[in-house]
Amino acid sequence: MTTAKPVVVYGASGYTGRLICEYLREYNVPFIAAGRDKRRIQETIDKIPGIETADYEVVEVSHEVESLTELFSSAKVVCNTVGPFSKYGHEVVEACIRAGAHYLDTTGEQDWLIECDETYGERMGEHGLLLAPGVAQMYTTGEIAANICLETPGLDTLDILVFWRGFPTVASTRTILVNAALSKAHYLEQNRYLEWPADGGLYDVTVPGQHEAGLALPWGGTSHPVWFKRDPRVANVKALGGVFDRQLMQGVPLIVKAVVEQIQGLPDSEKYKILDEQAAAVRSEMPPRENPRINTSMDSVHASGPLGRAHCVIHGNSNYKQTGLLQAFSVYSLLQQAPKRVGFASACQAFGHRELLGVLRSFGLVLEPIHSVYS
Description:
By secondary structure, the protein is α/β, with parallel strands linked by helices. The chain has helices spanning about 15-25, 40-45, 65-70, 85-100, 110-125, 135-150, 170-180, 225-230, 245-265, 270-280, 320-335, 345-350, 355-360, and strands at about 5-10, 30-35, 55-60, 75-80, 100-105, 130, 155-165, 185-190, 190-195, 205, 215, 235-245, 295-305, 310-315, 345, 370-375. The chain is built from 13 helices and 16 strands. The strands form four sheets. A seven-stranded parallel beta sheet has the order 3-2-1-4-5-6-15, with helices on both faces.
C-alpha cells in the first residue's frame, strides 16, 4: 500500500532518476521512487547523500497504462526517465492524462517531442496539464541561452551548439543509437521541418573559450527546432552537439554506422534488443558521481536577424546534476502554482528562462552568461 506523495519519479534506478530524487530531497518535496525492479531502485536510492532526511517511498510497478494510472492517481507531477521514450513514453503520458498529473521527462529523442506535440499536447492542455519533454541540460540550458538572445527584438534565426565533457550513461548512449538508427533528424527552416543529411558526418565547429576546433553532430536534431516552431519570434533553428574529446567524437559515426548496418531489415523488437546490447557494450556501468572540475558543459547560441546579431554562452559543470536540478525545480514550481503554459511546452516556456537560470546559478552549476549584442 503506497502513501500519497505529490511526485512520482519513474525510472528512479537510473543515473538521472537518482539525481532528480536527490534534488527533490533538497527542495524538501516528498516523492515516490518507482520502476520495474524495487530492489534496484532501493539500492540506487540508498546511495543518495542525506536520503535519510527525505520523505519518500520505493514502489515497483509494471509498465502498463492501468498500473501506472493507479500509481499516478495521487500525484500532481510525474518525472519520467524511462527510455527510449518513443518506445516507452506513450503509456506514461496516457496514464498522466487519466490520473490528472503533469508530465516531465529528460528525452533527447526529437521524434518523441514531435509526437508529444502533435498527439498529446492538446489533450494535456484541455485538462490544464503541462507536457514538458526534454527538461535536461543538453536542451534546456541552451534554450535559456537562446531566450536571452531573443530578448533583443528582430532576431529570427538560432544557431545552437552544446558541448560537454564527461562520461555518458547507458541511457544517453542508447538515445544516440536510437536516434541514428530509428528516426530522422530535423532542423527548422522558415518554420518548416527539414531533414539533416543522413550521412552521419561530423561538422567542424568553433567552440567558444578554446583555440581547438570541435566536432559535432545533429544529435538527433535535438529539442530546439520543436520548441521554437511555435514561437512567433523564430523562423530558423539548427542545433549541433558534441563532446570536447575529439577522438571520442571521431568514433561515434563509426559505431553508429556499424549498428545501423546490423539492424537493417529486422523487426522493431529485434532492433531495440540490438540497440540495447550495443549501448551496454559502450557503457554498461553507472558512471561515477560527477566531478565539477572534470564534467563541464558549454552552451553557445548565435541569434541573428536582418539587422541584428546576438551571442550568448553559458559555461557550466556537472551536466547530469543540471538535469536533476531542472527537473526538481520544475516539480517544486508546479506544486505551488500553475505553469506559464499548459499542454506541450518547454521548461523555459512553462517556467521562464530567467527563473531557470537563477536556479542553476544559485546551486553553482553555471556561470553568469556571456552575452553580446550587435545591432
